[in-house]
Model the fold of this input.
Amino acid sequence: DQQVKQNSPSLSVQEGRISILNCDYTNSMFDYFLWYKKYPAEGPTFLISISSIKDKNEDGRFTVFLNKSAKHLSLHIVPSQPGDSAVYFCAASSHSGGGADGLTFGKGTHLIIQP
Amino acid sequence: KAGVTQTPRYLIKTRGQQVTLSCSPISGHRSVSWYQQTPGQGLQFLFEYFSETQRNKGNFPGRFSGRQFSNSRSEMNVSTLELGDSALYLCASSFTGMGTNEKLFFGSGTQLSVL
Done:
């Protein structure tokens, strides 16, 4: 039972354009969502996060949108740059009871930025 | 500030053996989590330690265990290795592991191959 789903295993976008990565979740107890970026042979690095009390969070070229009613979040990268080519993981956690229950990750989307 | 350090970087074992992986968190971080990454399943949460106590546990068999020392360093042990245990094992640290502002910082992982 996959609670966090990234339905696009890969995405190819032209340099300078907008990259939109999507993520769906099924667990209504999730209240904190994160995006991580991973290069080969390295661990994931934190990119941006959003709490369930917000519907948008922006950090430079990166914006995350959360639609709680649809249980959907998306990561927008504008403009896309060659260094953005990586695997992007969507993750979610539940803080019910006061502690984090571990992050639940999607399977990742491989973003390829074409020159 | 040094990042999360995992040793060894690569490991080859045979079925039935046991293995111990090590993780040194970022200085000041007291929460250490372990994740397993496989091509088919993505990143899956194994367990989380805080102040030498296992606080959260994922859905893995008892062959997977861990511990945390007083200096927050953590070890993960897998006994009676199976072929399916071949994966990248990632360690992540954070200050407390709780609260919606917490970010996980990942190490580069230990690539375990079971032959």
